[in-house]
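Hey team,

Sharing the Biotin carboxyl carrier protein of acetyl-CoA carboxylase run so nobody has to redo it. Sequence (160 residues) first:
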Amino acid sequence: MDIRKIRKLIELLEETGISEIEIKEGEESLRLSRHSSIPAVEAPQVHYVSTPAPRQESPPAMNSAPVSAPSAHHESKPVPTAAGHKIRSPMVGTMYTSPAPESPPFVSLGQTVKAGDVLCIVEAMKMFNEIEADRAGKIVEILVANGEPVEYDQVLFVIE
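Structure output:
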């Protein structure tokens, strides 16, 4: 079907107020509708709360040193303390330590692993990606808890 015909049909739909039109030409068919047949889902409402900036009680004296603004408090990520080989997240997502909520974790602290053993799963966009050990050794540190979000290149495990 020619795009010009489709545009004319859309214009006709808008001009006449018809809510739906269906055209068949041979094996081709086209259905235009003003209203979606998919039920509408109400979007969740997000409420933002802003905190007022701290007020300055009195103007600073001309001879005083400039006052620096308080630095923003950033949430600190656990930093690996043990020396050894670091297993990093290859993507942004959510880390899961077991294949299912009722299953035991893939690995635990102090466990010896071989290259290729699954250490955890990182879920990204509804895809579950197994993170494997790239070398053999002992798990000396687990830096992310089950269900926590992870960033790209974030250290997940330390193997010694």
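The chain has a mean pLDDT of 78.

Ping me if you want the raw files.
A.
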